[in-house]
Specification:
The protein is α+β, with helices and mostly antiparallel strands. The chain has four helices and six strands, in the order H-H-H-E-E-E-H-E-E-E. Strands 1, 2, 3, 4, 5 and 6 form a six-stranded antiparallel sheet that branches.
């Protein structure tokens, strides 16, 4: 029995080492930065102003569109809390999330709307599901109010 176990281990250990080598390591450049989030939101604002709301909503919501980069995507809210466009979850479009809370009980959309009424760009922190990892993680969202809309792009804090 012992020699059979050794034979199996002689095969499994090198196989496991080989498989670990096949996995791609996670690097800092696999995740968006605050500067990249701000740039993406500004790019979205330029697109919105040049193309109008309907085209901007469609482009922001495209899974392979220009407003998705790794774990960074844009979301557009109305000041009423209704999602107009969502780069990571099309099922959220049209839903009023004003009363949604994160795992800590923070009404982050309501807070976001209140902050946007001041008409200045801002950063906001809360917890949300990362579409890449599938886990709830701390997130920082950069938001730019524009008329009756709020354009936001966030990073997951590592």
């Amino acid at each position: 029995m012992r020699s059979a176990t050794r034979s199996i281990l002689k095969f499994l250990v090198p196989a496991a080492v080989f498989m670990c080598g096949m996995l791609s390591p996670v690097h800092a450049d696999d995740f968006a930065t605050k500067a990249e989030a701000e740039a993406m939101v500004k790019k979205g604002l330029v697109y919105l102003k040049a193309n109008g709301k309907d085209k901007a909503y469609a482009e922001v919501s495209k899974k392979d569109g220009q407003f998705i980069d790794r774990d960074l995507y844009l979301v557009i809210y109305g000041l009423d809390g209704i999602v107009r466009a969502h780069g990571a979850n099309a099922k959220m479009i049209g839903k009023n999330l004003i009363d949604i809370k994160d795992v800590d009980g923070k009404a982050f959309v309501r807070e976001r709307v209140e902050m946007a009424k001041k008409k200045t760009p801002f950063w906001q922190e809360y917890k949300f599901t990362n579409p890449v990892s599938g886990k709830i993680e701390p997130k920082a969202m950069y938001c730019q109010p524009e008329d009756d809309l709020i354009l936001c792009g966030g990073i997951y804090l590592k």
